[in-house]
Amino acid sequence: MLYIIGLGLGDEKDITLRGLEAVKKSEKVYIESYTSLLSFGISTLEKLYGKPLIVADREFVEEKVDDMLSGAREFDVSFLVVGDPFGATTHSDLVVRAKKLDVEVKVIYNASVMNAVGVCGLQLYRYGETVSLPFFTETWRPDSFYEKIQKNRGLGLHTLCLLDIRVKEPSLESLCRGKKQYEPPSFMTIGVAIDQLLEVEQLRGEGAYGEDTLCVGFARLGSENQMVVAGSMKQLRSVDFGPPLHSLTIVGKTHPVEEEMLDFYRS
C-alpha cells in the first residue's frame, strides 16, 4: 500500500489519527520537500513517529520515485505532504504512476491553504479560479494570471493567489556549466506579490484591480503565530508579515456577513 498523507499546516500534531496510524505501520516514510515549507523540523516528526524520514526533494520525485513505488508493492509506504495531498499542489502524477504499477493507493486528507483562508470570513464558495504568482526575473515576467483575476472580479468572485516557492532550484549559470549548483531557498512575500501585480496592471491598463483594491494577506496559516490582515493593496505593501509562507486573496464582491468578519482584520 502507498499512503499519501496530508500533514496539515502549522503543527506536527495536525496529522490525523488515521494518518498517524498509517505512518506507524509503514516500513518506509517519505516526506516531500519542494511544494511547501515545513514550519517544524523533520527531527520533530521523527521523534513523534518513532522512525526516520526520507526526504523526497524535486529530483527524487522526478527521477527516483519508482524505487519508492516498487517498495510499496511489497510493504506499506507513507508519502507525507505538507497541507493536503490534493490541495494547493496536486500529487496526481504520483497516483497515476502508482496505479500503472498496480500499487494500491490510499489518500488521507488534511487542512490546506485552500480552505484555511476561510478564517478571514470570505466564503469559500465565493472564490473563483486560484492563480499562482511566480517570481519575476529580468527576462521572464509572465502575466497569464491577469486574465484569470480579471474574469473572477468580473463575476464578483474572490481570487486566491498562491505565492512562489523556490526550493533547491539549480542556477542557470550552473546548468550552463553542466554541474548543478542550487540557489538559496526563496519564498515570495505579500509585498513582492503586490508589486508584481501592480506592475502587470500598469502594463495592461485594463482595470482588473489597483492600489485601492481590497485584499487579505495571510502568513503562516495554521500556526500559533499566523497573521491575517485585510486592507487595500497599497496598505498591505507596507505591512511586515514576517517569515513565510505567505498568500494573498484579492477580494471580489462581498456579502454583509463577509464585511463584518473582514472588519476584524483591517489594518
Textual characterization of the structure:
It contains 10 helices and 12 strands. Helix 2 links the parallel strand 2 and strand 3. With 267 residues, it is α/β, with parallel strands linked by helices. The termini are far apart. The strands form 3 sheets. A 5-stranded parallel beta sheet has the order 3-2-4-1-5, with helices on both faces. It has a 5-stranded mixed beta sheet with strand order 6-7-12-10-11.
Question: How are the elements arranged and paired?
Answer:
Elements: E1 2-6, H1 17-25, E2 28-32, H2 42-49, E3 54-56, H3 58-72, E4 77-81, H4 92-100, E5 105-108, H5 113-116, E6 131-133, H6 145-154, E7 159-163, E8 165-166, H7 172-177, E9 186-187, H8 190-204, E10 214-219, E11 227-232, H9 233-237, E12 246-250, H10 256-262
List keywords for this structure.
267 residues, globular, alpha/beta, 5-stranded parallel β-sheet
What percent of the residues sit in helical stretches (DSSP H or I)?
25-40%
Note the overall shape.
globular
Q: Residue ranges: pLDDT <50 for 5 or more in a row? A: none
Span between termini:
48 Å
Structural class: alpha/beta
Biggest beta sheet summary: 5 strands, parallel
Number of strands: 12
Order of helices and strands: EHEHEHEHEHEHEEHEHEEHEH
Q: How many H/I helical runs?
A: 10
- Percent of residues in β-strands: 15-25%
Report the radius of gyration as a whole number of Å: 20 Å
The neighbouring-strand order within the major sheet is 3-2-4-1-5
